[in-house]
Specification:
2 domains, binds manganese (II) ion, two-stranded antiparallel sheet, Isopropylmalate Dehydrogenase, globular, alpha/beta, binds nicotinamide-adenine-dinucleotide, 14 strands, about 40% helix, single chain, ten-stranded mixed β-sheet, binds 3-isopropylmalic acid, about 375 residues
Length: about 375
């Protein structure tokens, strides 16, 4: 029997609601496998932890995460107005960046998937979606502007100013580019490197490294695309993309746009992988506008569980079952309200009912 310790960090906003559905699924997976058991321990994290414990990543939660085999995180952050209650250098977002830095989770996998049969979820026209959208965005997660030196103050002319540095060295770039080529080899062998080398030196270096690594993967078709154009192509021809790799800030923005072309950020799970530890989280935020209403889409959270099963525990078959269970619930005509389009014949269900239906579908499959 293998026991996996999983730290559960529900966080803020819709975090608790969607985490409850993830826990439902983890308990079911545990009960379906005699050789595996999950030790699930919830802990405070995010703005709610700052209010209750005076820190967004309290000591006890850090210790739990240090000892965990994997971390499952919900969502963190407050609305624009509420966020003023916490000093900016102690914010929930800073706590999240500290976690990324501590575990060096440099490889962020953000799958963007919608079969053609669910095209009615998307704001794009059916002829654009064709047989479906199936992209893997790979975002560098521990470099760039997010982690560069920052300062703000009054300059010599007496004006308020802010400055932040965008640093990448070749090793940081090479390791994420290698991850992207390896992912492309397991998929349709097409890689788009997203950059801004017409303006940024960091992108010139990025592109150089992609070209240096490419000969190691002769079967992968490589394309270099400027980030601004990539934003357009995601809307106009999303089916052209297979794997996309990019630096931290570009990946933040384009992955949310990718959620938009699917129809909702609620369809965006993710894995944040480091050399020794990985954590899993939805790509989206705490959605304060819909928190507490039992309408958040838990697909992103349950999908993050599927990624954890596969990537941290090697439970590839069960992960595949879980994706199929979720797709089956959609195919049967159910969705949370974020994905509904008038006239599409979708039956609306709440967060908990979606989770129940996924659990029921999974339970009906051979383990
Ligand atoms: P958001 O991602 O929380 O929400 C954007 C929109 O998407 C909202 O309309 C929301 O209702 C919708 N949405 C998001 N997830 C959904 C789901 N599962 N089901 C249905 N609808 C969903 O972005 P925001 O409102 O700009 O940010 C809110 C807070 O979240 C901010 O404090 C931000 O810093 C934080 N944030 C945290 C993370 C994280 O935890 N990794 C990621 C992004 C933003
Ligand atoms: C994300 C979020 C985070 C980011 C914030 C909350 C720090 O937007 O995970 O995409 O910008 O990386
Ligand atoms: Mn983001």
């Amino acid at each position: 029997m293998t026991q996996y310790k999983i730290a559960l960090l529900p966080g803020d906003g819709i975090g608790e609601e969607i985490m409850a559905e993830a826990v439902k699924i983890l308990q079911l997976v545990d009960s379906r496998h005699d050789d595996v058991s999950f030790d699930l321990t919830p802990a405070p994290f995010g703005a709610s932890a700052w209010f209750s414990h005076g820190s967004c990543w309290p000591e006890e939660t850090q210790t739990l995460c240090d000892g965990a085999d994997a971390i499952l995180k919900g969502t963190i952050g407050l609305s624009h107005a509420e966020s003023k209650k916490i000093p900016s250098d102690q914010s929930a977002e800073k706590g999240l960046l500290a976690m990324r830095r501590r575990y060096d989770t440099y490889a962020n996998f953000r799958p963007v998937f919608l079969p053609g049969s669910l095209g009615h979820f998307s704001p794009l026209k059916p002829e654009i979606i064709g047989d479906g959208i199936d992209i893997l965005i790979i975002r560098e997660l521990v470099g760039g502007l997010y982690f560069g030196e920052k300062e703000a103050g009054i300059n010599a002319e007496g004006l308020r100013y802010a400055r932040e540095q965008l640093d990448y060295d070749e090793n940081q770039i090479r390791r994420i580019v290698e991850v992207a080529f390896q992912a492309a080899m397991k998929r349709r062998r097409k890689l788009h490197s997203v950059h801004k080398s017409n303006v940024l030196k960091s992108s010139v270096l990025w592109t150089e490294i992609v070209e240096e690594v490419a000969p190691e993967y002769p079967e992968v078709e490589v394309h270099h695309v400027l980030v601004d154009a990539a934003a357009t192509y995601l809307c106009l021809k999303p089916t052209d993309f297979d794997v996309m790799v990019m630096e931290n800030l570009f990946g933040d923005i384009l992955s949310d746009q990718a959620g938009g072309i699917l129809g909702s950020l609620g369809l965006m799970p993710s894995a944040c992988v480091g050399p020794e530890k990985s954590y899993y989280e939805p790509s989206h935020g705490s959605a304060p506008d819909i928190a507490g209403q039992n309408i958040a889409n838990p697909y992103s959270m349950i999908g993050s569980v599927a990624m954890m099963l596969e990537m941290s525990f090697g439970m590839t078959k069960e992960a595949e079952n879980l994706w199929q269970a979720m797709q089956g619930v959609f195919a049967a005509g159910y969705s949370t309200p974020d994905l509904s389009r008038p006239g599409a014949g979708v039956t609306l269900v709440g967060t908990d009912e979606f989770g129940d239906r996924v659990a029921e579908a999974l339970d009906g499959m051979p383990a």
